[in-house]
């Protein structure tokens, strides 16, 4: 519970049996979190079992992909506030509080993994990945200069928090099944005239298991291209759903 609002944590998982239990346990220590939803996305290992043993509610999504899993998780979660994180231990549970604190002044709070002082040794955020994210984020920012003038330095940070109301507003606007879902969600929130801000979060080395999106240069390039196309599409040919009014405050 955070200021009378219930909080759900959503974790997409694809074959993360090595790390999921520790991630669930770490986030269970955050007093504000009321439920933890792990999305089993056709895992071929014991991810679901481990997550359940650690105290999470496990839901399944058969449509493959990071975006599909996050969408399912947010739909199934019951909290007034939704926090998204990864199953690989790369984000620190203690940062949840920072996201929640900023949610007092925004509809969606994005983490950024490109603040060098907060990227821990061994984290998968080398020079190319960091600057690639910064450039893509600046491009997104430029496209949305009017009317929102957002400020972003990352387009791929899963760790974020949003109100349920914001999720309902962006839900008809998002469709990407893979990692391009991350910037698509940012664009959708801007399109729905929601207030989106970004704050630095600690970024750690994967605690175990295998990277799915950014383990090789070709994988990173493919993800970057999909994200770039998605950002262009969301600005130039957005889905035909009426943008919702800005949240009164
Ligand atoms: N449900 C689902 N989850 C996925 C899929 N691919 C990745 N994930 C999850 O999404 C999160 C991000 O995937 P990662 O492999 O960590 O990708 P990354 O963060 O870009 O790369 P590293 O952290 O450096 O390994 C993790 O929690 C994965 O388990 C997928 O196809 N389906
Ligand atoms: Mg990761």
Q: What does this protein structure show overall?
A:
Strand 1 (7-13), helix 1 (20-28) and strand 2 form a beta-alpha-beta unit. Strands 3-2-1-4-6-5-7 form a seven-stranded mixed β-sheet, sandwiched between helices. The chain has one domain (7-236): Spore Coat Polysaccharide Biosynthesis Protein SpsA, Chain A. Helix 1 (20-28) runs parallel beside helix 2 (47-54), helix 5 packs parallel to helix 8 and helix 7 packs parallel to helix 8. The chain has 249 residues and is of the alpha/beta class. The chain has helices at residues 20-28, 47-54, 66-76, 96-102, 127-143, 164-170, 181-191, 217-236, and strands at residues 7-13, 35-40, 57-60, 81-84, 108-112, 160-163, 196-200. It contains eight helices and seven strands, in the order E-H-E-H-E-H-E-H-E-H-E-H-H-E-H. It binds guanosine-5'-triphosphate (GTP) and magnesium ion (MG). Magnesium ion is lined by residues 86, 88, 90, 206. Guanosine-5'-triphosphate (GTP) binds next to strand 1 and helix 3.
